[in-house]
Specification:
Length: 457
Amino acid sequence: MDQNSQSPHECPVPFHGGLVPLHGGLPDQDPGRFYEGLRRHWGPIAPVELGPGVGAWLVMGYQEVLELVWNERAFSSDARRWNSITEGSLPEDSPLLAVLGWRPALNRLDDQAHRRQRRAVTETLNGIDLRRLRSTVRQQAEALVDGWATDRTADLVSQYARPLVWSAFRMLVGLPRSEERRLGALLGSIAGGAHDAARAEAELTGMLHRLVAAKREVPGPDLTSWLLAHSAPLTEAEVAHGLAAVLLSGGESTIGWISGTMRLLLGDARLDSAVATGQLTVRDLTDRALWDGSPVPNIAGRWARNDLTFAGCRVRAGDLLIPCLAAANTDLRVHGAQNLGSRAHLAWGTGSHGCPAKDVARSIAETAVDVLLRRLGQLRPGVHATAPPRQPSLWSGAPDELPVVFAPVRPVRPNAAAGAPATSTVMGVPAKRKDERAADSGSKPPQWSWWNSINGW
């Protein structure tokens, strides 16, 4: 986007260079208020600056986001079209590239290349036994609560949502427990738009490439092994980057979903009462939280294939347009749908690029919230830390912290270590592909069991 171009919309606020500066995150600690103010000034689409000299369009209208995501003839997911790259205005070490740069992953591809990877990832995720996953997550959640049950206070982000989600996703992709803490830190840096996001993404990619190579040699009951065995077939680079996409979109969104649900409940006594009396189920509550605040506020952008007029604005070929799911869900033209229990929210994206891990995320989030509501009595907000919170990220809706206080809780397993791993797996071990079996003919294949787990679960 050309910083000197004029939008058809008039903005009464004197933004620098005519673009709304979003360097490093949102300038307001209340994202909902910020998006609403932006929409009042600009309408459904606003010109923003993501970094020095790096312009983009932030698409905030519900219908406009739908058109942007669904109209693949007009808009591409391939960042190699980005005029900030082709014109040299984006530094090679920009943290924006960790989220928006091109990779051989399903969320950054178009047409047949995208469909091939999408099918492989979707079919692999469908192989997860969600009943077993819920059981595994419940065991882990109970163990985490046991770890601070007698403290009468806890931070539901750092002591619960983050360790619970990264434990589950680490197990799903097949990483060893020793990598769990580092995995969460790297993904947090990328989703948080940290200054070292490019370095974090490079380290994450290296970690996943090593994992893929190891699973090629010794398959396990995990997503990595199943992706390698898929009939697509996928290269090791495609598997590694596909895993990164699932971890970033599925993992970070689940953390935001759990914390967003609990924050919604803590802030509304009527909801608390409705849940306590059975008028509102955990599923109802978690769905309402998706309307209130999208776990992923903005998703990886789209690039205009040609010059066009979109939502009344002149858009150049190669311009970046960012679908703002958080703003679209609060669009007054559709927001009343939440009162009808509608799931027409855009929290998971939509169309062929919608989040493929949403069923996994739902299983984890609903289980996590259910355990908290069942275990913690007289739950109320705690005292916030004195350190100022970071700027809200463009890419993650999870708060820095969510302190709570509660009535004394008796540990379920007082002698168990907090965060103790579950013992079952949620997938089987894949058979080798036909081409690999042919290459290995003459050698006896290993005998795998449903209960095999090389990762300590």
